[in-house]
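Researcher: I'm comparing several assemblies side by side, and this is the next one on my list. It has 654 residues spread over two chains. Same procedure as the others: predict the full complex and return the structure.
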Amino acid sequence: MPDPILKVSGLTTDISTPYGVIRAARDISFHLDRGETLGIVGESGSGKTISVLSVLGLLPSRYAQITRGTVEFNGQDITKASKRKLRKLRGKELGVVFQDPMTSLNPVVTIGTQLIEAVEAHVGDMTTEEAKARAVELLSMVGVPDAVQRLDQFPHEFSGGMKQRAMIAMAIANRPEVLIADEPTTALDVTIQAQILEVLQVAQRETDAALILITHDLGVIAEMADRVLVMYSGRVVESGPVGDVFHDPKHPYTVGLLSSLPSLDSDGQRLVPIPGTPPGGLSVPTGCAFHPRCEMSNERQLCSSTLPELTNVGNARLAACHFSDEVTDWRKAMIAGDRNDA
Amino acid sequence: MRGAFLRRFLQIIPVLILISIVTFSVTRLSGDPTTLLLPLDATEEQRENLREQLGLNEPLPVQYLSFVGGVLQGDFGESFRYRQPALEIVMERVPATLELAAASLALALVVGLPAGVISAMRHGTATDGVVQFGAFIGQAMPPFYTGLLLLVFLGINVDWIPTGGREPGSLRHLLLPALTLAPFMIAIIARFTRSSVLDVMSRDYVRTARSKGISERRVMTRHVLRNALIPVITVIGLQVGALLGGAVITEVVFGWPGIGRLAVTSVLQRDFPVVQAVVMLTAVVFVFVNLIVDLLYTWMDPRIDLYEGTKG
């Protein structure tokens, strides 16, 4: 098996706030194979965005820094790379699409200028015409009609969906090896979301990039991803191939996520929300961070005293639960009980 | 666009009418000019004659209308004191004020803008602290005090720096008045620029720009400054308006023959036509500078279309 294009090991990122230091990403490890799609799910504040910003070296350095761990891109640790070297990677090998296209484009600069800038940043000898032609090509590729005319327009003349297409065009301008999409559809209308995901797939196919797709929409993960990483309170709690994880989760939190997801073909089945709220970064529970909300824990002492390690649970799957071998039966019982209620 | 511009332009008219009413009323409230124009022992008859001559016996509405009627024809009346057209007296002083305004504005921009930008980029460092402290002092020092300090330390001790007066084209004479006016503006511009740049630096689109791997310099100029300087323009515009109205105290301290000092002496002498001319001209300049600022806005920010409101 070839080496992964991206390998994150033990990544830990701290954010300083006026109230204290928040450990936003804790001991994050994962890898990304060439060309694959990795989904990262978790509630707001679970550390998804911070993890990828750490990978990209885009953390606001004044408030946040990587305190431990390595990020290997093509076998080289880029957490220790110079700012200049990291800058050379960004936009060239690592493309990124941010969450909110409304605020992610410079309002006073034309779409064309912003796109051409992305093209030219990493190509030494390119005439203005060539860069412009490439920009038109990119815009057409992501499905922006009348690309030539639209280059001269400003972001406010683009709809939300069109803005996000333009963002994707910028991210793939230099055929990156890794494309990171941080909740690319969250800020968009539902009707536009599917289109944008399709554009992402096109972009990925055109560039052969590996894709990291961050979302809290499990449906999107099921649709797009090969493997999934479930995050809770700054940690990875479960990972594995999407089909396996969704069919037979090995962590109670993943079970909770799946149970709170409505689906069209299971009519009448009650949605089960996860009780409680995710912990804030300043007051993480002892032991397993999920234990106060976990309905499987039954107040067992081990859950509140000891942090569960991310361990192999078979078939390229990892889970961080002391009782991961109980999860399958517990879930079956819960679903059966639910049917009886109904 | 042209219709919008016209509408914006027409809005100036009620503003100017209001200012003319206020100016007219306030000058009349200041007292009887004849007590100052005639010797103390002048008879009541002589005073009455002079009032008659100056048109001060007419009912106030009639006086106001003849004032406005004159202004519309470019005639601000004759100075009570100098027996010359008031406008002429004011225009004679305009170059001095313009010169001082231009010099202090240039100084303020050259120092204030970079100070604000650097302070924001080094946010939280000692450099930032020094700039902020300097701005604090600059804004807290009243010009009459700054002016006196400069006079004492530079004007008196350094031979080639004159302590007052003006010679057209002489930079030496301009030095102290400009240095007196500049600190306050430098402080305002630096502080405003700093907070605006800081605000823009944390915007999502700046992160997007960094994600493309473009140089930090490009990020600052194209993405941060282009956006951050838009609100700073307003502050500069207001300062320019204030400067062109004459820096009254500075002009008095340094015997600078601009319209600020003219305003003061005319008020003291109850020279109504000159006071009215100074105030009206200043108002017109202020209003037009603001109009220009608005136009600059539409040029710098494509989202703003005058009177169509802000979009997206």
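Model: For your comparison table: Chain A touches chain B through 35 residues (CB under 8 Å).
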